[in-house]
Structures are given as C-alpha cells and as structure tokens.
Amino acid sequence: MKRISGFVITPVLILVLTAQITFAASIAELEIRANQGDGEAMYELAEMYQNGVGALQNYVEAHKWYNIASSRGYVKARNARDIIAEKMIDEQLAEAQKLAAQWEPSESKVSETETKNKKQLLLEELFKAIHDSDGDKLQALLDSGADPDTEIFTGVPLLMVAVGENKKPIVEALVNGGADVNVMIKKGLTLLMIAIKDGHSDIAKYLIEQGANLDVISDNGSTALSLAKSKGFDDVVKRIKKAGGKDEQGGKGQIPGDIIAVVKKGDVERVKELLAWGADRNKTDRKGWFPLMFAAFAGHEEIVAVLINSGVQINTKATDGSTALMAATLQGHYSIVKLLLEKGADKTVENNSGATALDIARQKGYDEIAGLLTIKLRSTYSNLSYDQVKAALKKYNFFDQNRNQTGEFINDYELKMINGDDVVLDHITNLMWHQSGSEKNMKWKDAKEWIDNLNRRVYAGYNDWRLPTVEEAASLLESTENDDFLYIDPVFNITQRLIWTGDSFGTRGAWDANFVTGGVIWRFTDSDLHARPVRSVK
Q1: In whole angstroms, what is the distance from residue 215 CA to residue 193 CA?
Q2: CB-side neighbour CA atoms (13 Å) of 189
Q3: What is the DSSP secondary structure assignment for residue 467, as one 8-state letter?
Q4: Contact 92/110 with Cβ under 8 angstroms?
Q5: Residue 334: helix, strand or coil by DSSP?
Q6: Rounded to an integer, what distance in angstroms lies between the CA atom of residue 4 and that of residue 185?
Q7: Which long-range contacts (CB under 8 A, 24 or more apart) does 132-141 make?
Q8: Quick one: pLDDT band at residue 246, thresholds 50, 70, 90?
Q9: How many CA atoms lie less than 13 Å away from 87 in the CB half-sphere?
C-alpha cells in the first residue's frame, strides 16, 4: 500500500479518484443540457448540488436550478425547491433567487460548459496515464498543452499522485514538463516530505536535485531533514545537509506551518507557537476568512482568546462582509459571542447582504445569543451634566448635530399593532416605543402624569411605560432628515418633534431629544414638549 500525505493509495482510492473525475464530467454534461433549457437536466443538476453527489453540497445552486426548472413548467422541481428552502437562511435564499432571475440560455454558457467538460476529460486521461505508468501517453498529453500542475481534485496535484505511487519516471516527466516541485500540500507538507515519509528515497533524492525547498517546516514542526533522520535515510540526510537543509531549530526563519490550518485543527498550543514565530495573525484565504473567523466558527474558544490577546483586528470583515462575531453567532457558540463582545466586537456591523449578527441569531432561533447582541441602554433616570451627555452620545455613536455629527446608530424597527394600539419595536435596543406619543405639548411633570394615565389604560397590553432616558431618546436620532425634515425614522408619527426624557439637568431643567435640529438639549421643566413613552422588552 502507498500513502499520500497521510492517506493510503489503494485500488479503492483509485476508484474514488476516478469517480471524482467521472462525476465532474457528468455535472459538465448536465450543465450543457440545463443551460439549453432542459428541465430534467436542471432537476438532476439541482439534486447533485443538494446531496453533494459529484459536487460540493451547495444549497444556493440547488435552489437556483430547482427554481428555474419550476418556472419552466417542471412540476416536480417546485416541491423540491420548497423543501430545500426550509434548510436555507435568508441570505442564501436571496442569492439563489437572484441567480435564478439572472439566468437565461445562451451560447456563451453552453460554450463555457463544453470547455469545462473537455478539461475534465483531459484530467481523466492524465490520471490514467500516471496510474498506468504510461510515460509516452503522459508526454503526448503534456506536449499537447496539458498543465503539469493540474490537480486531480483540490490539494492533490498530478505530481503528488506520481510521488505517492513511487513512479519516478512519471515524476521526472512531469518535472521536465514544468511541474512545480515545491507545491505545498495539506498540513504544510511538501512533495519532498511526502516522498521521505512514504519511503521513496530515490524520488526524494531526485526532488532535492531539482531544487526542492529544504527549509519548509510542516504544521507539526517537521522538516525534510528531520523526517529523513527519523526514517534512517542516511543518504538522503547527507544530500539535504550538502544542499544546506536545516533541522527545525536551525531553520532560516520560515514560519513553521500554516496558521489557518492549525486554527482549523483546534491546536491551541501550536497556534501559540506560530504566533511566537511571527505568523501572520490576520492571514486570509481566498474567501477572505482569517484565523479569528475560523476559530470563532469552529467553536475553538481558547484559540479565539489567544488570537484576540495577540492583537488581531476583531472587527475585520471577510469578502462577504461577515465578521468573527457573525461566524460564532451562525454556529450558536454563545460563550465565544460573549467573549468577542467583551473584547470590543461591533454588534452593529452589517454584512454585504445587510444582515447583522443579531439578524442571524434571530433567524437561527438563538434567543440567548440574541439577548447578548441587543444593546442595553441605561433605563434608570439621573441628573446629567453636559459632559455626561456628550460621553453617552460618543459611547453609542448616536448622531447629534452639535456634539457628534459623524455619529450613526443602526436600529432595526418593526411596526406592530397590539390590542389595536400602534407600537414600534427596536430589535437592536430591545425597546418598545409608543408609535406617536402625546398629541399635545406639556410640561415635564404633566408628561409623567400623562404616562401614568397611559399605564392605567394598559396601552398595548402593558402598564410599564415611562419617559425614555437620554440614551434611549438619542437612539432615535437619524443622521439625515426624512421627507418631513425630521431627524427620525418615518416609522414614527411626525407630531412629536421634541420629546421629554426622564433625566434632569440641575434642579430646574430636564433633557429632551429634538428631531427638528437633530440633537439632545436641556430645557426648563416648565417648557412645553411632547411625551413619547418607551418600555423595556423583558
């Protein structure tokens, strides 16, 4: 039996590799027919994406093809589409529907798919030539333009298969054809390391002659030299030393492994070592994911803490606009969400689809996490100075025309009618507002009495309405005017242009929110303003 990077090359694996190629060719054929408008092909293609057979499982692609087939009269696709939709989050559904709406049969799509199909057939021929040790066939394919660095599937180049099967002539043909001897394999291994691990000393010596990098350190801290020593390959050890290879302790400063791979594995001690070596804590993959994102998603809380303490940017966004906080929320990792928030994660950040971490928690039904992601504003009254109000505005980034012009607070309003009474629920602050408030202006003392009467009436079924605090009232301030020239969301009634808060200023004044000028100011308590009651949602 032969091994490649820790797995065995057996007849069964050969069948698996061949199946990978065959399935890919099958998908290419289905795509040709689907793009020509064949409803049955669309349905079969959707099934392959839904079940992950012959392709990576992809609900977006599955829903897209079911949707298109359904719209073209393929009845069976409609039920399948509705079933898979229940397994998808809103962002996925929106993307699938967008792709379906944009789809149209075109010659360019067919041509592109046919090209993909030809590539898959070429890949099958290359693999067969290597497996059969058919050097002439391989050379003919390379001469016709085949890429010697082609991957059988992700992370498994042709050269890796040849090394794993101990076929030195094939290795030489591929290298002579331009294959990269220093391609990196999973777990930070090189082809040279694989040749040594699998006991193929002749191939190892050949790769050294061809310039194999001797200084790479794998994820577990091994080098080509240390592996050769452990295998007892004295002749390989001599060649490595002659070419300048070093042990782990004597390397030339290379980072010993891929930090993303180690984070995924959950090896906290190894992560600490890599950071000590100077590994890039903000390294990203092709999707823009970074170590903190992977750790938060996988639930590796200790690694999350280590990365935060190392100085990572906690609010970094991936390509799709998501953050580590969103990744932890998506997977329901309560303790990691709590840790990220304690360390400064911004719960108001939106991804490219406009969703916040709170939106994700609510959609997934994670009530406890949703509770963490709501912003808790002060709800008890106080006598506040100018400096205290300014500090509060800055703390929550509330807009104020005079004190914080660059402020912008994100709300998530929902207009509801309860028992015939209109209220506005803010899911960000977990506050319920009276949609309008008092119809008339009134003094501060009278505003409190008006709310007492509202509670006796049990407005919207509740009797705990009150005047808002400065922070609660300021959370309503918008950074731009609405169509009625007020700095408040149009979900609210426009009559209440200035509203009292329950916070006082000295002995004769109280603070209010002014939606005409866009700010918070104090006035004498005998001034006449409106009341807009609020209550905390339990």
Answers
A1: 11
A2: 20
A3: P
A4: no
A5: helix
A6: 10
A7: 133/167, 133/169, 133/170, 135/169, 135/170, 135/173, 138/170, 138/173, 138/174, 139/173, 139/177
A8: low
A9: 12
Nearest to 454 by CA among 532, 538, 513: 532
Query: What does the alpha-carbon distance between residue 316 and residue 337 come to, in Å, rounded to a whole number?
Result: 15
Q: For all residues of the chain together, what is the average pLDDT?
A: 85
Output the pLDDT for position 126: 79
422 sits in which H/E element:
strand 421-426
pLDDT of residue 107: 53
> Residue 434: helix, strand or coil by DSSP?
strand
Asked whether 5 and 160 are in contact (CB, 8 A), the reply is: yes
Is residue 532 over pLDDT 80? Answer: yes
- Residue 15 exposure: Cα atoms within 13 Å on the Cβ side: 3
Q: Rounded CA gap, 255 and 520, in Å?
A: 54
The C-alpha angle with vertex 69 and arms to 67 and 75, in degrees rounded to 5, equals 100
Strands 498-505 and 509-514: antiparallel
List, as own/partner pairs, every contact residues 490-493 make where C-beta atoms lie below 8 angstroms and the sequence separation is at least 24, other chains included.
Answer: 491/413, 491/415, 491/424, 491/435, 492/424, 492/433, 492/435, 492/436, 492/532, 493/435, 493/436, 493/437
CA–CA separation, 373 and 428 (whole Å): 8
**pLDDT tens digits, one per residue of 414-428:** 999 999 999 999 988
Q: How far apart are CA 361 and CA 89, in angstroms?
A: 11
Tell me how far CA of residue 349 lies from CA of 198, 301, 408, in angstroms: 49, 21, 12
Interval 281-294 mean pLDDT: 90
- Phi and psi dihedrals of 148, rounded to 5? -65, -15
What's residue 117's pLDDT?
Answer: 56
